[in-house]
Amino acid sequence: GIQGLLDAAKALAMTVVDLVANPEIVIKVKEEFEQNK
């Protein structure tokens, strides 16, 4: 229930922090996304 929601929110927040800290990850993800279209 709520604990799962909190865990998901934490995971999402960590992902955002990683993306902000590592802009090259964003570029890689975008490139992969474009290739997978």
From TrEMBL:
This is Uncharacterized protein. It comes from marine sediment metagenome. The lineage of its organism: unclassified sequences, metagenomes, ecological metagenomes.
